[in-house]
Amino acid sequence: MTTYCCITGASAGIGKALAQSFAKAGYNLILIARSAEKLYKISQQIQQEYGNKVFIYAADLTDLQQLDAVCTYLRNFEEQILIFINNAGIGRYGEFSLIPWHSHESVIALNITALTRLTHSLIPKMKKFNRGHIINIASTASFIPGPYMATYYASKAYVLSYSQALNAELKEFGITVTAVCPGPVKTNFQTQAGFVHEQSTSITGISSAEQVANICLKVVHSKNIVRIIGKRNALLVFLVKLFPRRLSLMVISRFQRKRNH
Ligand SMILES: NC(=O)c1ccc[n+]([C@@H]2O[C@H](COP(=O)([O-])OP(=O)(O)OC[C@H]3O[C@@H](n4cnc5c(N)ncnc54)[C@H](OP(=O)(O)O)[C@@H]3O)[C@@H](O)[C@H]2O)c1
Q: Is residue 162 annotated as part of the catalytic site, yes or no?
């Protein structure tokens, strides 16, 4: 039986880099995102370059019917899915009340509902093999409330808390759950979130999608529960935990406000 790594949000950014890194490391892949065309191109390139098996599934994970169909597909997938990476995620920048409700709804549907639902449908399969690794792409945003991106930051706090709790439940079944927490990464995320300016480097450094993907590859050989990417980000999270929340909130609020002015 061959083993598979399933990646959501695999058509661009971190997910696309994850597909490349895991293919290079010899994993067969199941790639999920909305854009069938982009997924197809990536699968063709990977199959030609590395010879791995690649299945693609185009779906909008914020649509409950489509999400349901993806869950059924994964549950019925005949081979072992050893690694599952919940990477698809979106954010929306702006004053909370001025952002249309459907945008908040999409952030919650993708970052929380889809991530939780997909994990729920895959765990029984992993339990059966007494083996598996679930990587949830969280963020340094998981550690602090984020004014002007309130829903996104709160969704990432959920991902962190959920991953830690699930890891405690699942370790006796040979399954590890890791929350990987990058700081800013150079992808389409910022444009999609509605930032006017490129993300500032004044608080933390910017990673590449490839750096994040390579760290995820290392994480699958570890029992890490939380993995913060980059020393500066780790220091920032340490300071956030150390300082009174009121003070951290003041700093993050000023930083976030500047992003669009
Ligand atoms: N970039 C950063 O600064 C940063 C920092 C920390 C954490 N993260 C996290 O890293 C993850 C990946 O972000 P990224 O930077 O790689 O963003 P990205 O370049 O915008 O890529 C997002 C991916 O998610 C897919 N996607 C978006 N909406 C979807 C939907 N409704 N259904 C299915 N797939 C959907 C997109 O593909 P389609 O458009 O084809 O659907 C794309 O493949 C996210 O969870 C994000 O929160 C990013």
A: no
φ, ψ dihedrals at 217, nearest 5° = -65, -40
- Of 110, 112, 189, the residue with max ligand 1 atoms within 8 A of its CB, to mutate for a pocket test, comes to 189
Give the atom of ligand 1 at the shortest distance from the alpha carbon of 63. 31
Q: pLDDT by residue (tens digit) across 154-179?
A: 999 999 999 999 999 999 999 999 99
| Number of domains forming the structure of the chain | 1
Between the CA of 193 and the centroid of ligand 1 the distance, in Å, is: 10
**Catalytic pick among 152, 153, 158, 162:** 152
Distance of alpha carbon 203 from alpha carbon 235, whole angstroms: 10
Sign of the four-CA dihedral 120, 8, 142, 109: negative
Ligand 1 atom closest to Cα of residue 199 = 3
Q: What are the strands, taking DSSP E only, across the chain?
A: 3-8, 28-33, 54-58, 80-86, 132-137, 175-181, 226-228
Tokens 């300071």 correspond to 239
Domain membership of residue 214 as a residue range:
3-258
* 126 C-beta closer than 6 A to ligand 1: no
Reported as a single tens digit per residue, the pLDDT across 20-55 is: 999 999 999 999 999 999 999 999 999 999 999 999
C-alpha distances out from residue 9 to 30, 32, 36, 56, 150, Å: 11, 6, 11, 11, 22
**What is the spatial distance between Cα 134 and Cα 172, in angstroms, rounded to a whole number?**
14
